[in-house]
Specification:
The structure holds two protein chains of two kinds. By secondary structure, chain A is mainly α. In chain A, 81% of the residues lie in helices and 0% in strands. The two termini of chain A are 27 Å apart. In chain B, helix 3 packs across helix 4 and helix 4 packs across helix 5. Classes of the chains: A mainly alpha, B alpha/beta. At the A-B interface, helix 1 and helix 5 of A face helix 2 and helix 3 of B.
């Protein structure tokens, strides 16, 4: 158990203090800031128009935060694979994998430790994005509840993407291949079941139930469904398990 | 301490190692010798639990490598061919990471790191980033890494490869110091290294053990008095006049003269060599060089590993 944290701590430190991480975090914040500013401008305009027409106040969630959450999510889909791409591929390339495989630790220690390191680094990014609603709070009042559940949902999604990235990184020595593979899987997961709403066929209903997007949307609506929570945990465990299998297989395959 | 029985590893159709069987006793230093591609690295990787064999068994301190890998790995310090270093870490952080990984107790970590830094003469660079170190230093960090958890067994895969002669000498010195504290298996294709550090040699070629003996046994030194030796003598003048008087010496079986150089084959110990020297010096030929052509381990090695190829 403690070995998991030895690995997690080393990888987290090496990841967060790498130039790559600063670059990814920098690009994310620039994009988020730019898009959020524009969203605020549009929201203000629409609010003005609605008041001129005699309408009441607009919902800040519908007008602003949903935009923020979807853009934060969209960028993380691409950014997380860049953080996770080197988790295992780099170890293989620089032969430090030999050290891990000849140390008294299990493949599970390695996979889970690396997953936690990636999740930690990704969470720092997610917290960065939380500064936008925090600053918005300085100028207006709103209910936190839906933001919290949305961010919990984002956090779970992050777990899925980190697990996918870890798996992608385990199957190749090339960081570039790992990042491409992870992004492709992430988008596939996201779009799977995207058009399934309202369809009658059994297959489509099943796809809808197991789609990442569908399970995430309940969090955004401010509800906390145990089934969605379990769904994400299952998904995460599945990909971490796959990565663990790949690590274990290198012991007897080569 | 290390028991290896009938170990076989195949890569597809290619047999990397073929029914290898040998034992290493506690505290022994064993040189694992063989030409490139003989299966040294494969064997070491299997002993350390890095990869599984196709068949056969390895027991370390009574534990089977594949049944209880964790117990085995606790007892082994391993330096692979390429030292497993994280370039973005500083030396002391890296070593304490390895110590934690190997399960050194928290309170012991600092002293374990310092001890291995001192042993490998790395104290002066302990605050430097690994990627900025020279190859010699990196190799030493690799050895420090293997030592840091104070393992009972050290497995070193070509520890001096790619180093300059001074660094090679330093690492040999270190290996000699480590003798007695650890059971060591050392792979190399550099013969003087084995002669300098090991008590026993296992020569493998094409995945098979072709010889296993003590150093003295292999080189045939225990019966040196009855063995043919070869020496070279170079003189400044009157070489041809010297030839008949050399031929008169009993111990000399064969003399060959080329310009000012004698190639002499003789039977006997150091007293025979002394006799020859006396004859040469008293003749006033002006002795400028007397060297013994290395026989022993080197010729044993070449003989054993080339014999296989003929078959």
């Amino acid at each position: 158990m403690s070995k998991i944290f030895v690995i997690a701590a080393r990888d987290f430190k090496s990841l967060v203090f790498s130039p790559l991480y600063l670059m990814v975090a920098g690009i994310c914040t620039v994009l988020w800031s730019f898009i959020y500013l524009r969203a605020i401008g549009q929201f203000a305009q629409r609010l003005q128009m609605s008041q001129m027409q005699g309408g009441g106040a607009m919902n800040i969630y519908e007008g602003l935060f949903f935009n923020l959450i979807s853009i934060v999510h969209l960028i993380l889909i691409v950014a997380i694979p860049m953080l996770t791409m080197r988790l295992l591929s780099e170890e293989k390339k620089s032969r430090t994998f030999d050290l891990l495989l000849t140390s008294p630790i299990t493949s599970t220690d390695i996979a889970v430790g690396k997953f936690l390191a990636g999740l930690g680094a990704a969470t720092v990014l997610l917290l960065l994005s939380f500064t936008y609603p925090l600053m918005t709070r300085l100028v207006t009042e709103f209910n936190w509840m839906m933001l919290f559940t949305s961010y919990l949902g984002l956090f779970l999604l992050l777990g899925v993407y980190v697990a996918v990235g870890l798996f992608a990184s385990s199957v190749t020595e090339s960081a570039l291949l790992a990042v491409i593979l992870a992004i492709v899987v992430n988008f596939t997961l996201w779009f799977l079941g995207q058009g399934a709403d309202g369809s009658d066929s059994v297959v489509m209903t099943i796809i809808d139930k197991i789609s990442v997007a569908e399970n995430f949307s309940s969090f955004v609506k401010g509800t906390f469904k145990i089934s969605s929570f379990v769904f994400f945990l299952t998904f995460i465990s599945f990909f971490v398990f796959l990565a663990e299998r790949v690590v274990e297989s290198t012991r007897w395959r080569s | 301490m290390i028991e290896i029985h009938d170990l076989t590893k195949t890569y597809g159709n290619r047999i990397a190692i073929d029914r290898l069987t040998f034992n290493v006793k506690k505290g022994e230093v064993v040189g694992f010798l063989g030409p490139n591609g003989a299966g040294k690295t494969t064997t070491m990787k299997i002993i350390t639990g890095f990869m599984a064999p196709s068949s056969g068994a390895v027991k370390i301190a009574g534990f089977d490598v594949f049944e209880q890998p964790i117990e085995v790995k606790k007892r082994i310090g391993y330096l692979p061919e390429t030292p497993p270093l994280y370039g973005d870490m500083i030396v002391s952080d890296y070593l304490s990471f390895v110590a934690r990984l190997k399960g050194v107790e928290k309170a012991q970590i600092k002293s374990a790191v310092n001890e291995s830094l001192e042993k490998t003469l790395l104290t002066e660079v302990k605050g430097r980033m690994i990627q900025n170190l020279s190859k010699g230093f990196r190799q030493r960090v690799g050895i420090a890494q293997a030592l840091v958890a104070r393992p009972e067994i050290l497995i070193l895969d070509e520890p001096t490869v790619g180093l300059d002669p001074r660094q090679v000498a330093e690492i040999r010195q270190l290996l000699i110091q480590l003798r007695g504290h650890h059971t060591i298996i050392l792979s190399t294709h550099i013969l003087p290294e084995v002669e300098a550090t090991c008590q026993r040699v296992i020569i493998i070629d094409k995945g098979r053990i072709v010889a296993e003996n003590t150093l003295a046994g292999l080189a045939g030194e225990e019966s040196m008095a009855h063995v043919r030796r070869r020496i070279q003598i170079r003189v400044r003048r009157k070489a041809s006049e010297l030839l008949p008087s050399l031929k008169n010496i009993d111990a000399i079986k064969n003399v060959l003269l080329t310009q000012d150089k004698f190639e002499i084959e003789l039977v006997g110990g150091d007293d025979a060599v002394e006799k020859i020297t006396q004859v040469v010096v008293s003749s006033g030929a002006g002795l400028v060089e007397l060297t013994e052509a290395t026989k022993g381990l080197e010729s044993a090695f070449i003989q054993l590993t080339s014999k296989e190829k003929v078959e």
